[in-house]
Structure formats: C-alpha cells, structure tokens
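Cross-posted from the bioinformatics board.
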Amino acid sequence: MLERMSNALIALEAAPDDQSAVDAIFREAHTMKGTAGMVGMMRVSHLAHRLEDLLTELRSGARQSTPELTDAMLRVIDGIGRLVAGTADGENGPPDAMELEDLLPATVPGAPPAAATGPTAAVALPVAVGPPVAVALPVAPALPVAPAPPPPVVQPEPPHIADAPVIPADGPVVHDRRRLDAVTLAVPVARIDELNRLVGEASAAQLRVGQVLGAELRSDPDMVSEYRELTKVLNQLQEVSERTRMVPIGTLEPILHRTVRDAARHAGKSVRWAITGDDVEIDRGVLEQLAAPLQHLVRNSVGHGIELPARRLALGKPEEGVVKVHAAQVGSKVVITITDDGSGIDVAAVRAAAAADGVDVSNLDETESLRLILRSGVSTAKEITAESGRGVGLDVVSSAVTAVRGRLEIENHPGSGSEFRIVVPITLTIVPCLIVSVGGQPFALPMERITRMLGPQPMHLMGDRRLAMIDGQAVPVTNLASLIGKTAPCEGPWVILGSAPGQHAFCVDSVLQKRDVVVRGFTGRLRDLHVISGASVEPNGSIVLVLDVMALLERAEHFVEPEATVAKSAELPPKAPTLLVVDDSLMVRELQRSILERAGYQVQTANDGREALTMLTEHPPDLVITDIEMPNVDGIALTANIRSHPRLANIPVLIVTSRTNEDDHRRGLDAGADALIVKSAFDEASLLAAVSRLLGDAREPDGAAARARRAAAANAVSPVRATAGAR
Amino acid sequence: MRVLVLRVNADYFAVPMETVHQVLRHPQVTEVPLAPAGLLGVLNVRGEIVPFFDTGALTGSGTLRNPPFAVLLSGDKDLMALATLELPTTAEFEEPVAPGVKPGELGVYSQGDRLITLVNIEELVNSQPDLLRAS
C-alpha cells in the first residue's frame, strides 16, 4: 500500500493534472486510515487522515501539486512505513508521528476537509491499544477489511487482475502488461525451494530407473516409450519449477525511479527516468542482491554524471538530463545497463585521486584507470553529500556484483555520459562448473572463476612459494589437495583461478568433466564451512561439494605447503604427454592441436587411420584422438588395430565424431575406444576433461583393468544417453 | 518416555523417539574438507544435504571412526544425523536416577546394568560451538 502511494505520488508529480492519480492515492490513504484505526495504530491513522486532507485539497483544486509537496508526502509515507515496522529512523529510534505531521503543510483555509466521499470511513476505535475487538463496527462493506482478526496494515492487498489502461499523450492504449499477465499467488519461498528439491529428486530417481532398465533388464531405456515420456515430462517439470524463482527486473522499477527522483531533487537537477526490458526475468535471489547496487549506480548517475540545468544549457544539451536502465537476456546471462547523458567520468581526476590514495597509476591504461573508481576510498567528488562522495559506494557495488557471480563493466564517453553494465547469471541455482578430482574426491569449480587450464608447467621456488611463468606473468602455484587438507602429489593438470594480477594456479589430480551443476547453498549449521560454498546432489545420490573460489584464493595467499610436497613439486614436471590427433579435416586437426598445445600437451597429427598406424608403430603416443569417418582406414578400424597390436594395446583412444548414430557409437566402443565425444557437443573444456581423465587412468599401474571398467560403464549408460536424461 | 538408545564407544545415549526420523545403515558420507572436529561429513537424505555429527566428539566419549549407523533427527529448524556404532534400540524411560551434568544432558537413566544419558540434541550441538567451527 505504501509503495503504491509513493509510486502514484511520483506519477502525479510528473502529471499534476492527472485526477486519477489523486484518486488512487486518496483511496490508499483512506484504506490505510481505516485499517490502522481498526488495529489501534492511531498515530498512523491520524497521519493518513492528514494525507487525505491534502489530497482532498488537490482534488478540489484548492492546492496544486508541487515537488515540495511531493517531497513532504513521500517523507511522511516513508515515516509511516518505519512506524508500522517499528524500525529506527537513523540513530534516533522509530520516527515521531508529530514530527512527521509537521512535515506536511497546513490545510488551506476554507478548503473542504477529507470527507467520506467514497466508502464510509471506519470509525476510530477508543484510544486503548490492544488486540482488535470483535464488535460490529460501522464499516462500509466496500472496505477491504477482514472481519476478525484484522490484518496488519502493511500486509499487501490482493492483486488486481486488470488495471485501467494507461493512455499516454500520443499513442495507443497501453495496458500494464505485467499486471494483466500476472495473476499471481503469494507463495512462501521455502515452499518453492522444496518443490525444486523434489523435482530434482524425481529426476534423479528417473535416471536410476534408466540404469535398472539397462543393467538389470538388459533393455535400452531410450527404446522404452514410457521411459521416454517420463523423461520428457520431467524435463518440462524441471524447467517450469526453475522458472518459479524468476521475477521480472521491473520489480525494481519503483524503487529505482524513486531513487532517481529523490537524488535529482536533492541536487537541484532535472532528470528524466526511463526503463526498458523490465520484463526480462531473473532469479529472485540475484535480483535481491542487485537492488542496492543498482540504486547506488542510478544515484551516482544523477549526483556525479548529470550536470546542473544551467550548465547543460550552456553546453548545448537539453536542460533535462536522462538516466536509463535497460535489461536484456543474453544466453544464460542478464545484462543490466545504466546510462546517463551527463559529463562522463573524469579519468584524469580519478587517476589523481587514486595517486593521492597511494596507488601507482604510472603504468595504467585507460580501461585500468577507469576501474580505479571501484577502489574503496577513491572519489573525485568535490564535496561529500548525504548521497555520495565518500568513495565507499562503487567498491561495494563491485563486491555485490561479484558475490552473485557477475561482473561490472564501465564505458566512458567524456562530455556525453557514462555506461555501467552489470552482467549476471540468470540464476544462481544452475552453475556451469568444472568437475575436478582433488585428493581422490570430486569437487565442482564454478566456470566463471576459471581463467584457463594447463598441463603441468616448469616451476620456480622462491622461498616457500612456487611460481610459474604463464603468459609473461609470475603466477603462484599451490597443490589444491594440500590446501584443503588432503594428500595428493602435485602432478596433474593446473586450473588457473582468479583474474590478473591476482591469478593463482592450482594443481588437481585430474579434470573429470564440464557440466551444469544444480547448486544448493549451505544454510544453518553448514553455513560457515571454509572453502565450500554449496553442494550438488548427483543423479546417483552422491554429493559433489562446490568450492568457494574466493575463499580458496584467500587461503592460498597465506598457505605454506608441507616441505615434502614442496620439495617434490619443485622438480621439473615430467615430460608433457604426447597426443596423436587423427582426422581427415585440416580445420579439425588444427583446432584440436591448438587447444591441446595451449593446455601443455605435445601434439602430432595424421590425416587418416593408415597414416596414424605408421606413426603409432614408430613413435607410440600417450593417447590417440580420432574421428570415425576417414578415407583408407577409418577410426573404428584404427581403434581395432591399436587394440590388437601388443605394443599399442594399452594406449587410450578417444573418438571425436560428428556422427550421432548410436550404432556407430556402439561400434566404436566395442572396437575398444575408451570414450567418445560428439562434435555437436564439443567444446574445449570437454575435450581437455576427457583427455585428462583418460591419461590419468592410463597412468594407473593396472591400466588395462581401468579400461575394462570404463568399457563396462560405457556399455551400461553411454554419455549421450546420460546427458539426455539428466534434464 | 519412549527413547532410542545409541552406543557411542563405551557409553550410551538416548534421544526422544519423537525426534527420530530414520536410522541409516552404512550411510554414504561425503567428507567436507577443513571440516570442524565434530562434523564427520554430509549425507544425502532424499535430496536434502544433512550434517553428520560425530556423537563421540559431541559427548566427550571419544571420536568415532567409520560409524556404520546414522540416526536422522529433527533439530529445531533442520535435520541432522548422529553417528552410532550399533543398530540403535528402543527403550521406555521412567524416572532418572541422576541429573544431567553438561549442557544438553537431560538426565541419566538406568536400563538393566547400564546407565544411559538422555540428551536434547539441539542443545547438545549448540553447546559445542568450538567443535562445529571450521578450522
């Protein structure tokens, strides 16, 4: 109710002659007066009555809407909210109702008082405040008051199913689409989370049914129409249940509009506000985290960006500045852009402020200089106001955006404005992760924190720290197993976390796969675990813990590895494995070569199976990656030849094929291939994960036994089928 | 009062039956790196991730290694699991033979030739913040 009153007041300020806005505010004030009186909140009821008086004067024309009147009424409405909630007003405890009333102008002499022109007003109860008295009150039936017990005044009213259309000055009738489409139901968030959890359980159970069909009944589950139907329905159910957490960005529109309005009034500036893409949906939890950062950014745009009216006119700009927010969905991300047409960011002033704060700015380029404004304490404001200027806002914005796994980008247009872009995931629940083995246990690392992956690199010991030169930067290296209290040598691939100059390399046992993970945050007793940010329940019922990358980086900064591990790891790493890539397509060969060499492998290539066999007998590689369809000797025949050759039989074989036919996949695995990737699902991380996994298994003392296990697993459920059933 | 009796090394403890959800045999425990001393790991219970506590560490009876049973209990706000070395048994408690000593201990009861301490699990867990603080 309070929010609707605020929004209507701001709308009235923009269109002072809009009687419908006055009527809307009057109705709200009237309802508040009656309801507050019913529950004994007499101060609130009285304040609502005073608001009614002013609104009656506006209706009758005895008073005109002015920005000063809007200021006063908004402050009173805010104060009513704090009175109802019993919250403090700054450092002084809950607001004083009389002080709030003093903010309002006295009634115009001779103006009609707030009369009961609409629904009959509730009769004020006796002063004694206590539980509502269940007596028959002379309340008109039209008042939305429950018979007993009456609800608190702040409880939201039932949603309107349809609003009157808003008729702009020069355009067609525009219905508020959000209101028309949103026949909503208020549901506790915990109930939605429970629903999502149960849907996840249903999907896991469905996968187990598939495994039983395959292993126990020797039946391909994808050939069973009922199973396919179950999979399809569960995928749809999962999609719908995930969307229950989504809310439109426009939910924040009223608060952002109010922020711009108040900031402009405070600064004596004239600012027009616009929002587009407000129907883009985002996870409720993400939006809640972004509310304060967005408020700060729009407030900054008004306070620091938009010039004073006289200055704007002198510059040839319109007197009224513009602050716009635009939201758009790009894949699995939402991009929220805040732009203004002000003066832009004075980069020279930013550099000077940072230098004064002790930052070495001598080697910073334009982009790096611009990002200095995100440092705490850096402010170019000539004066500190209640709104901004202390240099503590944008660093908090940056931290808040990072906390929801987003990033903040800045574009500067000196003289014509600035643009802040927040890019965040649509949902925090489903996170693309790299699954790695650390000390024998699988963990998930969120992909957005991973800079790259490498094979083992030469290291340098400096005191008790290990460093490696990567792309010209000295990057510290830590054994991730040691860091989290496990035991494992630092011999596997490296995962680089963080961004320069704060990058850090962590060695892991192996990279298992890359996939989306449904993350449950830890709450309650599990809330304060170090280095763990959540967990995922796998289809087979196991739990994969999600590592907190920021906590890992922080811990690694001061971590001293046990001496034995450091001494061993300081040796030069073993020679990088050699891979043979076999494909008749030059483009595919070179693409795979590029990916694998960047990851630290040595790569040979062959055009077809015949050439590959010649190379294999001369210089056996550590792993073969082959296509299926090739001239002369195809991939399946190549694989069969490798398996039948005594010297080559233990070399792992990975098939990368564009064929989606299940029979071809089966033939490849039956010929002895260890794994198979379909090119349509191919990406760098998947290839590297598969290579790392196969090389890790091949290095086991009993490599043949490991291959037999993998073959059995591949026969039970192929990667393609498992992926199809997972969602 | 109907209770469930848990063996924890050489000691016996009991919890009120109305707080007991389930007893799990050979639970699949996921270890948590850098976990506090009182936390053996986490369990998946029908999709919910539940902390699995070392009852021995919480009660001072000595830590438990690879406990074969987990008793799933309701705390005030969430589920938790307690480790025990044997399949728990039920009992009926009448009057205590001695009062409880530490926080979370509600009283000591006699059953045949053994003494069993009745505990309030929520209070017991909350009284050991050091054992539950991550290292």
